[in-house]
Amino acid sequence: MNAGYNFASGPSGLPAAVVERARTELFARADDGSTAFEQPFTGEAFGATLAHARARLKDLLAVPDNYHILFLAGGATQQFSMVPLNLLGDASHVAYADSGHWSQRAIREAGRYAAVTIAARYEGERPLAAPPLSPWCLPDDCAYCHITPNETADGIAYPALPDCGAVPLVADVTSCLLTAPLEVARFGLLYAAAQKNLGIAGMTVVIVRDDLLRRPAPLVPSSCDYRAQAAQGSRANTPPTIAIALAGMMFDWIAQQDGLAGMQARLQRKAALLYDAIDASGGFFRAPVAPGHRSPVNVRFELARPELTTPFLDYAAQRGLHHLHGHSAFGGLRASLYNAMPEEGVHALVTCMADFMRRYG
Ligand SMILES: *Cc1c(COP(=O)(O)O)cnc(C)c1O
């Protein structure tokens, strides 16, 4: 029996093949009698797990050799502090584009450590959109410019990357990393919490260009010091071992599905199916984001009659379509189509929407 589909924004579902693999491999006993849960983080067995995850990720993203890949404990919210603490150096300013909920959270946190300049924001009403790609306000004395290419809660995605010149571009790619190819060399630093597309909660991947590690960071706690973690291969202290093992399995699974090109093609089919159904519903369902700026990963939509939102959520749940409510800041509906969501799940959702419309339309 199909256990249903999980459209949650995070933690997300995992591919069934990854859950099966985890069930056998994580509980298997090595020669010393230990399972993956019991291996010392400095030991050979976990060392191999870590090296495998790093090599696979480097391969999938074609990460250039002058970048470090770190697997750090904690979520993306920790990086909201670690990024300014590690990269500010002698500068006093940092620039942030305000594109919605998660960038605003990052801005608030950065404001505790530095003067934040808002590089850009979208000033219009509905339909919603990403900030315009120019002009951007980047002060001379600016350590980096931060963007959130996919706004998970707002359902907004940038149509292209901004040109920040010599200012290093830093991106919170928590909800979009490994959903499509990405040119790492355009960024100074990328970070993504694992629980959306890379496995389970508790770990964040940081990919940082070598030259950015040289800046002094006197206030950084040692466990949060990118330089120390880079120098010690993410083992300056105990890393989230099981989350790293799961990420390695996710990377293997993605590689087997034609890598990032395969993920992107599948995501585009899923997103087109759902947005087309919304747009073809004669206004019964509607998407508040402008077509060129709609996130393929987090599809935000709503019912023209808001009083039907709860009945729709109940109707969908009865059919095994779970967690379709919008972010608490916005209400409405949202379907997250992360890598693990099979195309059949989106077909089931579109059928459910049509049936609901026939009943209530
Ligand atoms: C989910 C999410 C976060 C928050 O991640 P935590 O691991 O809960 O701190 C931050 N940024 C984006 C873009 C997200 O989607």
TrEMBL record:
Modified residues (N6-(pyridoxal phosphate)lysine): K196
Name of the coding gene: serC
Compartment annotation: Cytoplasm
Organism field: Rugamonas brunnea
Pathway stated in the Swiss-Prot or TrEMBL entry: Cofactor biosynthesis; pyridoxine 5'-phosphate biosynthesis; pyridoxine 5'-phosphate from D-erythrose 4-phosphate: step 3/5; Amino-acid biosynthesis; L-serine biosynthesis; L-serine from 3-phospho-D-glycerate: step 2/3
Function, as annotated: Catalyzes the reversible conversion of 3-phosphohydroxypyruvate to phosphoserine and of 3-hydroxy-2-oxo-4-phosphonooxybutanoate to phosphohydroxythreonine.
Name under which the protein is recorded: Phosphoserine aminotransferase
Catalytic activity: O-phospho-L-serine + 2-oxoglutarate = 3-phosphooxypyruvate + L-glutamate; 4-(phosphooxy)-L-threonine + 2-oxoglutarate = (R)-3-hydroxy-2-oxo-4-phosphooxybutanoate + L-glutamate
Molecular-function annotations in GO: O-phospho-L-serine:2-oxoglutarate aminotransferase activity; pyridoxal phosphate binding
Complex and partners: Homodimer.
